[in-house]
From TrEMBL:
Keywords: Pyridoxal phosphate. It comes from Caulobacter vibrioides (strain ATCC 19089 / CIP 103742 / CB 15). SUPFAM superfamilies: PLP-dependent transferases. The keyword Membrane does not apply. Residues 20-323 form the Aminotransferase class V domain. This is Isopenicillin N epimerase, putative. Gene3D superfamilies: Aspartate Aminotransferase, domain 1, Type I PLP-dependent aspartate aminotransferase-like (Major domain). It comes from the Bacteria.
Length: 368
């Protein structure tokens, strides 16, 4: 959901693009006003948000778009090399890792994240899979799981992999602008994320980060020669994007800073803690992330007793919305079983999560 100031800017930008159209998009207006200057301003805004150089940022159509390009165009990979992912990674990214197996001859190794998770057993799981995959070359790590909300110790995992000669691609789609951090805190060379999620930019905006010294290790996307080879934008497919959406990114970033990253994270953590603490003693509700504040933020998923199939999870989601007007989303793909994800936003209130807790008290036995 876009804040009002961002939605208003998006509407103005859409009207401007519709009015000026090709003369603006082709950069023929006097004074240098045009798509190129707007595009570079958006790159600079994202770089300011995550604390890196603007020349290390490429704007994509989505976080998935950015991550797919990083994964499938990772140049050092050879046939027989190992690539590693886990059950809590985003399904589209798991599919991209599997693509490396079917199209590039990589050995795809998948493992299950421990549940219940702790910092120690998460690190042990990554250490174990790296030890038993000596041919590993590439590791996918998700900063915040879209399935359960688990926050992984990315920096430690990246360092562990690097010590074994393994590169890491980080999916930060639910981390950037939700957690208050800078990319350098992760220690990773390759990161992709969605700008339309927690930064609240318009839909259809994502970003790719490649550490400048590592750019040669990501191949040019589909021979994109619209920029010099040493420009990160060659690593994104060419083609028309939503001009107005990209133009609105600086407004979204300004709004994020006006609220404050720490204040934003504190608000969403508080809402999460409020509903989790309210249902913690319910016998039929299982919270799927640990209580360690380092291992969660806004997102937390739960299971109801008896919710062992995707169809059962769908029923829970449907009932929470139709009876209680509580919007949640079920997620499959977790080795231990499907979950119901709860995601308070910046705009959510204590009353919203209190309503969720009340609904769970009423429905906790619905599958028994």
């Amino acid at each position: 959901m876009m804040p009002r100031v961002v939605a208003q800017a998006f509407a103005r930008n859409t009207a401007m693009v519709n009015r000026a159209n090709a003369i603006w998009a082709r950069n023929v207006l006097p004074g240098g006003e045009g798509w190129t200057s707007a595009f570079r301003a958006a790159e600079a805004a994202i770089a300011r948000l995550v604390g890196c150089g603007a020349d290390e940022i490429a704007i994509a159509r989505s976080g998935a778009d950015a991550l797919q390009m990083l994964i499938t165009n990772y140049k050092p990979l050879k046939a027989g090399d190992g690539v590693i992912c886990c059950d809590l990674d985003y399904d589209t990214m798991i599919a991209a890792m599997r693509w490396l197996g079917t199209h590039k001859g990589a050995k795809v190794v998948e493992f299950a994240m421990p549940e219940p998770a702790t910092t120690a057993n998460i690190l042990a799981a990554y250490e174990d899979v790296l030890k038993r995959t000596p041919e590993a070359k590439l590791l996918l790590v998700t900063q915040v799981s879209n399935k359960t909300g688990l926050v992984t110790p990315v920096r430690e995992i990246v360092a562990m992999a690097r010590a074994r000669g393994v590169d890491t691609i980080v999916d930060a789609a639910h981390g950037v602008a939700c957690l208050d951090f800078q990319l350098e805190d992760l220690g990773a060379d390759f990161v992709g994320w969605s700008v339309h999620k927690w930064t609240s930019a318009p839909l259809g905006t994502g970003a790719m980060y490649v550490r400048k010294s590592r750019l040669p290790d990501i191949d040019i996307a589909f021979e994109n020669r619209n920029f010099p080879d040493d420009d990160i934008n060659t690593r994104i497919p060419s083609g028309t994007v939503n001009f107005a959406a990209v133009m609105t990114i600086p407004t979204a970033v300004d709004f994020h800073f006006a609220v404050g990253g720490a204040a934003k994270e504190r608000h969403m953590r508080g809402l999460r803690d409020r509903w989790v603490n309210a249902v913690r003693e319910l016998a039929n509700v299982e919270i799927c992330v640990p209580d360690d504040p380092a291992r969660y933020c806004a997102i937390t998923s739960f299971r109801l007793k008896g919710m062992t199939t995707d169809e059962a999870a769908r029923r829970v989601q449907k009932r929470l919305f139709e009876v209680h007007r509580i919007h949640t989303i079920w997620r499959g793909g977790v080795r231990k079983g499907p979950v119901i994800r709860v995601t308070p936003g910046l705009f959510s209130t204590p009353a919203d999560v209190d309503a969720l807790a009340k609904a769970l008290r009423a429905e906790q036995a619905m599958l028994l």
